[in-house]
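Batch manifest, entry 17 of 40.
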Amino acid sequence: MLAACLAAAAGTVRAGDTTAAQQLERFSAQAATPGQAERGRIFFTSRHGGEWSCASCHGNPPTSAGKHASTGKPIAALAPAFNPQSFTDTAKVDKWFRRNCKDVAQRECTPTEKADVLAYLLGLMR
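Output type: structure tokens
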């Protein structure tokens, strides 16, 4: 119990600490503008100077399982309505955005790009 209180007081983030909607709010606040789904769809499906787009691994639309473009490793559906675990762990959200943006865009994504992609993904419904 004491460890949990100390972790909370220190701002430690744990798995299951968030929702996709909260992540959208976080990135929109950092960007000082709300995420725009259409911009997110365009970013998600476009190449940014490299071989891949986000859709290369996650599918278009990303509503079912995908697979890594070079390793073939299975990837769970990305859209939160199709995978309730998507975007529920802040540390993983930050890690995967950083890693995947570097693969796709050869740089880290901006908060605006992250907010746009999340707005797009949250708009994909069953």
